[in-house]
Amino acid sequence: MRASSVRDILVTLFVLGVLPLCFRRPFVGLLVFSVLAYMRIQDLTWGFARFQRWSFLVALVMIAGWVAARDKYPPVRSMRTGLLLFLLVWVGLGHFFAYGEAPVDAAGFVEYGKIIFIALFTTAVVRTREQLRILVWVITMSFAFYGVKDGLHGFVTGGGVHIIRGPGGMIEDNNDFALVMAMTVPMLIHLATSERNPRLIRGLKMMVPLTMFTVILTRSRGAFLALMVALSALVWRTRNRMMGLLFGVVAVGAIVVLSPSEFQERMSTIATYQEDGSAMGRIRAWQVAMRMVEERPFFGVGFGRFQTSYLDFEPNPTPSQLDGHGTLVAHNSYLQIWAECGTPALLGYMLLFVASFFDIHRVRKEASRRYFASWILSYCTLFEAVLATFLIGSVFLNRAHFDLGYHLHAMVLVFGRVAFEEMTDAVRYPMRGGSGGPLVASKRSGFGAGSRKQKGFRTTPLAEGT
User: Fold this and answer.
1) Is 17 helix (H, G, I), strand (E, B) or coil?
2) Rg of the chain, C-alpha, whole Å
3) Percent of the chain with pLDDT over 70
């Protein structure tokens, strides 16, 4: 039996085998769905399993299980869930006012609806700190698999690898794949600093430079800048910023030194973008997007219609664009959603980030008042760094409808609810109320009382997370 057939059989048996568990426990279904969406194990096969709609099947089963469950919770009601629904409705209405005569991108809109639904579904089934931790682990390891695999390949070949595409799905394009790898770096660092198993910590720390090297191997300038933002956000939140800055500079310097000369030459074009055809092409695409916004500011040209409408708003198209061979995309997530879906959609999209960052700030402020160190503060840094990385990387990529971006907003919403529940519930979490506990009279007091050195570990309990 060929190795390709074995992979198809293994993936098929895995998905079909976990379906009953996905029905009984919809949270497990969400984890399996995340593996299929982010790790793309089906794209590691070459036979029949590669073309099956596994994600759709798992989604149907876990939704059925959630509907049938007696103790289910509805999605969290908040401004962010309202914004998600608003975006879905507004984008749908935009189809009726779309520009031109191109057919409606029904398949793309259905995919967008699935992304919004999974984000809402996450707020319904992820209810505890441990569930959030498991979900973060699954998503991080799904991406880290490719970071380690491609990083090792590049290291063995002396940087002679050029990653020209990702595994598939939303990260098939090499620039999109590079951005995800840059977002994975702070996720790995978070896990390495929050876990307690020494072997696990060492393994996670080894994954970080390999994943950073994978970003280099994509030759993506936007992802490299996003990676710098991720490291800067992490350094800013360290207790010893000078040491963190030194470590970051050394790590980035070592990776750049080991990087191929083609990458170094490509990075040098950032300062001389006027001489780079790719950079100037992005600027022309941004100008086209702004012309679309000026003419159709309310509903835009329509969801998924940027490419078909491009030449109508480009007064000086290149010969390759006229022949249909040029890349006609916005090269900017914010201009993409603005040009395609209108100003209200852009405002709703940006408000998602404002609300998430504000929630993180609010949680961090309260947790800092209560604890010197806590899992809550660690997760604040994680989500802050990952969202900042995505924000900067999206300036150069078409990631307005990226599934992980919406999923992150849902996870931040869940995190805020769980964190405040632990910080304010003095009955379920008595050590988390900010109180130092009852006073106990000391048996020895006064100046000159004999001192005794304590040996071993402390016997008095610490509040969980400190």
Assistant:
1) helix
2) 25
3) 85
